[in-house]
Amino acid sequence: MNLKMKKDGKFEFLETGGSGEPLLLLHGLFGGLSNFGAQIEEFHSRFNVIVPTLPMMTLPLRKVSLAGLVDHLADFVKHKRLDNLHLMGNSLGGHVAILYAIDHPERIGSITLAGSSGLFESAMGNSFPPRGNYEFIKKKVESTFYDPATSTKELVDEVYNTVNDRSKGIRIVMTAKSAVRHNLAHKLHHIEAPTLLVWGKQDEITPPFVGEQFHELIKDSELHFIDRCAHAPMMERPKEFNRIMGNFLQQVAARQPSPA
């Protein structure tokens, strides 16, 4: 699909439109709207697929935190008047999705988490990424994927340019530290919605044991591992990821009561 970015007040997003229930896709710390091309193509005929930008680089510095992103998402959902939301989040996007779902269970139809942060993550670290070191950034981006070739030069350049912009780099570190501090182990039992967990078997950022911990702590959850796959299964194994998520969403729909 050839979708154009929409801007509505402080919100930027892609939206397929249509009469289906909203499927909201949330990107990670270094992610973007392009991460979900395969999911937009697969699900736009059944859902109104919406991909908002999480404003990590544009929030006022005093609001740069995980809580700031959750507040932004809450404002966006309220502004768009979305209900029976199907949330899907990768990495930090999963962390944001969980916190929003705990705060607003009445709006949630289902949750899908792919390599979510919130329990344990090993990413850039807690210090400022070394500026000007292209090879360091290249290796870090490649570590997101099982096959380093999945990491294109365009993707590496985008991350490199971000960390070499001092203002953006500071925001990246502040957001990452906020996520590490905000451990969810004591909150996950509050999740009421059916939850799908999709993990790459070779994920080094949120390793497979993290998916197992999420599964143990979220009562209505199912866990799937994808082999030859790391931290971004929706990008690296899109067909398998879409099949798993599609089956899950069908099961969720079947559990909903029929209209009177």
Automatic annotation (TrEMBL):
Highest rank taxon of the organism: Bacteria
GO cellular component: membrane
SUPFAM superfamilies assigned: alpha/beta-Hydrolases
InterPro entries associated with the record: AB_hydrolase_1, AB_hydrolase_fold, AB_hydrolase_sf
Residue ranges of every copy of the AB hydrolase-1 domain listed in the record: 22-238
Membrane-crossing segments per the record: none
Protein name: Pimeloyl-ACP methyl ester carboxylesterase
Organism in which the protein naturally occurs: Neolewinella aquimaris
Organismal lineage: Bacteria, Pseudomonadati, Bacteroidota, Saprospiria, Saprospirales
